[in-house]
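INFO batch 0412 | record 1 of 1 | parsing
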Amino acid sequence: MGVQLTVDYEQVVELVEQLSEEQQQALIARLLRQRAQQRPLTAEEKIQLFDAAKLSNLVNQLPSVRRQDWYDDDGR
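INFO prediction complete | emitting tokens
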């Protein structure tokens, strides 16, 4: 059996603010998934869940605009 701690809302907010951006997004996604099991999500909640699932990795190199580089042909 776990220990029950009394934590007020402001303490939770301060702790969440100490998390990294990725951890905060993971927490949002977790909370929205739990809420989705209890009731259907609203459109705004679905968008938040979608945004939380996005990766924020930088692209190392821009893709070429030349068709030949993508398909190895001359376009004919």
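INFO post-check: The longest helix spans residues 21-38.
INFO record closed
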